[in-house]
């Protein structure tokens, strides 16, 4: 079994979709949205379309 | 221009950690903010660099992919030198004193995680059904159905459905077999829930002790060969820093 290089989907899957989420008052927000939350939502909407082509919107949660 | 500190990961303060030559987000030089036994790896960032990331950036060469690679490069640089607890992409704190507060508030749980991660690496295992639905087709036989007698049509549908059911049971048992075989080689494992991909039967992250890696990888190799005969594709990714095992807050950030 050969491991593939880190394609963008696998990378985003780990870097943005995983990793410790820190909440609380130490985090900077943009327009009232914590950065980590903002980008999570982006990823969930975006990576899915890279991996599978156009697809219906997913439910988060 | 609003600035902050981009936070990549938590590591131990004691370990000598030379990050010279490692480029972080937007090329900035990562440095350590230390507090008690812990260090937060940060670099200066202008918030504008993280603003307005949009769908058009989601390609190999897009802005988001570039930033994610820069984040990953720093986490991996730490990972090669010391135990690392990666933070989620896009974590930005105000300044050094908020970095210290972050470390203080999560000191004990971060310490416990770093202990857990010492001499471990993460591997990803995914199992796909590559039979392409040929045994599980449904509703495709209308043209032949029209020429067939009703009884023959029903008999054909019954056997199609039975074959599909059999395949479902088979792939479920194959997935269980993979789990049962690999779990024993890992210190921890978590099912990954991020991706909804067609024909994905199993998506698991394994936290494997470095000493157990040869056995784990040999086992994956053997399973992959066995599974291929039955048109199942076992895909391995890694080694990764322990992204999938990095959790700090008792209550994880809810997704809504």
> Low-confidence stretches of chain A at least 5 residues in length (pLDDT < 50)?
46-61
* Percent range of helical residues of chain B: 25-40%
Strand proportion of chain B: 15-25%
Global geometry of chain B: elongated
What does this structure look like?
The complex is a heterodimer of chains A (61) and B (256). Chain A is mainly alpha-helical. Chain A is 43% helix and 7% strand. The termini of chain A are far apart. In chain B, 37% of the residues lie in helices and 24% in strands. Chain B has helices at 63-79, 96-105, 107-117, 142-147, 150-183, 213-229; strands at residues 3-12, 31-35, 38-46, 84-86, 92-93, 120-129, 188-191, 200-209, 232-240. In chain B, helix 5 (150-183) packs antiparallel against helix 6. Chain B starts with a strand and ends in a 16-residue tail after the last strand. The interface between A and B is large, with 48 and 65 residues.
Task: Indicate the topology.
The complex is a heterodimer of chains A (61) and B (256).
Chain A: H1 8-15, E1 29-30, E2 33-34, H2 35-52
Antiparallel strand pairs in A: 1-2
Chain B: E1 3-12, E2 31-35, E3 38-46, H1 63-79, E4 84-86, E5 92-93, H2 96-105, H3 107-117, E6 120-129, H4 142-147, H5 150-183, E7 188-191, E8 200-209, H6 213-229, E9 232-240
Antiparallel strand pairs in B: 1-3, 1-4, 1-5, 2-3, 6-8, 6-9, 7-8
Helix pairs in contact in B: 5-6
């Amino acid at each position: 079994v050969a491991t593939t290089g880190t394609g963008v989907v696998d990378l985003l899957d780990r870097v943005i979709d995983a990793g410790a989420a820190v909440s609380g008052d130490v985090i900077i927000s943009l327009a009232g949205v914590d950065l980590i939350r903002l980008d999570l939502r982006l990823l969930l909407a975006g990576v899915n379309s890279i991996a599978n082509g156009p697809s219906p919107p997913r439910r988060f949660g | 221009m609003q600035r902050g500190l981009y936070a990549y990961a938590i590591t131990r303060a004691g370990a000598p950690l030379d990050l010279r030559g490692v480029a972080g987000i937007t090329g900035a030089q990562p440095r350590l903010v230390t507090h008690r036994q812990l260090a937060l790896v940060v670099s200066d960032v202008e918030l504008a660099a993280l603003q307005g990331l949009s769908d058009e950036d989601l390609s190999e060469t897009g802005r988001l992919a570039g930033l994610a690679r820069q984040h990953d490069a720093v986490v991996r640089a730490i990972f090669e030198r010391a135990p690392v607890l990666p933070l989620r992409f896009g974590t930005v704190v105000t300044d050094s004193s908020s970095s210290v507060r972050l470390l203080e508030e999560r000191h004990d749980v971060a310490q416990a995680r770093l202990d857990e991660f010492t001499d471990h690496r993460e591997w990803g295992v995914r199992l796909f059904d590559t039979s392409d639905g040929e045994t599980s087709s449904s509703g495709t036989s209308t043209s032949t159905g029209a020429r067939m007698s009703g009884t023959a049509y029903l008999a054909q549908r019954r056997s199609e459905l039975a074959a599909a059911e059999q395949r479902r049971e088979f792939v479920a048992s194959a997935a269980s077999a993979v789990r049962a075989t690999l779990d024993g080689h890992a210190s921890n494992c978590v099912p990954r829930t991020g991706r909804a991909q067609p024909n994905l039967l199993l998506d698991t992250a394994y936290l494997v002790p470095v000493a157990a890696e040869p056995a784990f990888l040999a086992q994956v190799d053997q399973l992959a060969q066995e599974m291929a005969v039955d048109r199942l594709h076992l895909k391995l990714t890694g080694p990764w820093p322990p992204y999938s095992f990095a959790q700090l807050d008792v209550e994880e950030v809810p997704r809504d």
